[in-house]
Amino acid sequence: MYILTEGTEVQFIWGQWAVPVVISEIGGDWVSLRYPLEEPIGPGIYVDLQVQYEFFRMTYYYFTLNMPRQFNDILFLRRAASRTYVERRQAWRVVANEPVRVEYGENRISFEATLLDISSTGAYFAVEHLLPLTNPLRIYLPMNGRVYIFNGIIVRKIPPNPRLGVPLRIGVRFVNNPIELRNLLVHFLWSRIREIYRDQFKDLYPG
Fold first, then answer.
1. CATH of span 94-195
2. C-alpha of 128 from chain center
3. How far apart are CA 152 and CA 139, in angstroms?
4. Which of 1, 39, 80, 192 has its CA at a distance of 20 to 30 angstroms from the CA of residue 128?
5. pTM for this structure?
6. Which residues contact residue 16 at a Cβ distance below 8 angstroms, ignoring those fewer than 6 apart?
7. Positive or negative CA dihedral for 121, 140, 181, 177?
């Protein structure tokens, strides 16, 4: 049987990155390793661990449980059931229900939207007006008592259901934001997630 063991060298694969790492510890459904990148990462991000055996290559699917504070800090991963499960969601999402200001187009047309949920990679909003897909957005997100501007693009539109009172919703992916801003968002989400899912994380990542 081919299983991961402590000391196994694997390829850590996330998005465009594929870098070698060594498994530090391993439990029943989790592993830990030294985070090999400087790009900020938070909990709930799906990654692959790929092992090259003598005659074949095997890929294991995991999602992150914590937020490394810096490069080479300990990262905890929990096993995901399958690629289908992995692709179901890209990140833990924090549920919200608060108004935010959004601008679109070169003339920065402004309107109010309701933030429904948010992750490190994007957010869902309820809006009153249909927006063109081609226009980039500027989203004014309140975090820790301040407002920060994020760039995004619309990747999904969900039609309204007037009979059920459900408004038009849009899915937005964050793009072209500086690493300092992305890191700030990850820190903010991690603090919220630790509050919401404390019982699920405290055994693996106390403190």
1. 2.40.10.220
2. 26
3. 7
4. 192
5. 0.58
6. none
7. positive
How many angstroms separate the Cα of 193 from the Cα of each of 42, 51, 188, 201? Answer: 10, 31, 9, 9
Using pLDDT thresholds of 50, 70 and 90, give the confidence band for residue 199.
low
Q: Which two tokens stand for residue 113?
A: 């939207």
pLDDT digits (tens, 9 = 90+) for 180-189: 898 888 888 8
Would you list the DSSP string of the chain? -----TT-EEEEEETTEEEEEEEEEE-SSEEEEE---SS---TT-EEEEEEE-SS-EEEEEEEE-S--SSTT-EEEEEE-S-HHHHHH-SS--EEEEEEEEEEETTTTEEEEEEEEEE-SSEEEEEESS---TTS-EEEEEEETTEEEEEEEEEEEEE--BTTTTBPEEEEEEE-S--HHHHHHHHHHHHHHHHHHTHHHHTTTS--
